[in-house]
Amino acid sequence: MKTEIEIIGTALFGKSWMTQIAENLKDQNGESLTRQSVQNWHRHNRLPMWAKEQLKKLAAARLAEIQELNKTFDDYDFVIDEAIENFLWWNQSKITVESSIYCKLEFSHDEFNNEQHHAAITLEKPSDLNDWHILNFDEKYFMRDMINIRSELKNKLQRSFAVAK
Q: Does residue 155 surpass a pLDDT of 60?
């Protein structure tokens, strides 16, 4: 059975949790902890309240870091989904079997070197077709394609992104 400190430590730091806890916590006098202190807590399944309070603050900070990191992963899907919904909101009634839908996903970096995504979807033929992917319809499969248009557009944008990278 895992001890409280092991559960917390593993969640925060993975396999090297004892060393990491010793390096990140201070005792009641503000002094650095030894790995042996953490081992004693683990061995006796006792976690001092002062250490638990520090671990709680550390967990909140790590959670904030992970949530910020997660935003960079979500940005890609969010941008694509938002572009598709906006396009369909304004254009779905205009799409016919003769329509061509032009899709492009681009990326850039902001001042912090975070990747930024921009998706473009239009019924208007761009003057320069570089990196644009085109969704054309076949009369035979038009109804099926309209039912699946969100996934079709997402596939086109993902292909565009792979080319742009």
A: yes
3-state secondary structure the chain: CCCHHHHHHHHHHHHHHHHHHHHHCECCCCCECCHHHHHHHHHHCCCCHHHHHHHHHHHHHHHHHHHHHHHHHHHHHHHHHHHHHHHHHHHHHHCCCCCEEEEEEEEEECCCCCEEEEEEEECCCCCCCCCCEEEECCHHHHHHHHHCHHHHHHHHHHHHHHHHC
Q: What is the pTM of this model?
A: 0.54
Question: Is residue 6 pLDDT above 70, yes or no?
Answer: yes
Residue 152, token pair as written in the block: 């079709």
Query: For the chain, what are the domain ranges?
Result: 4-68, 70-164
pLDDT digits (tens, 9 = 90+) for 114-138: 777 788 999 999 999 988 999 999 9
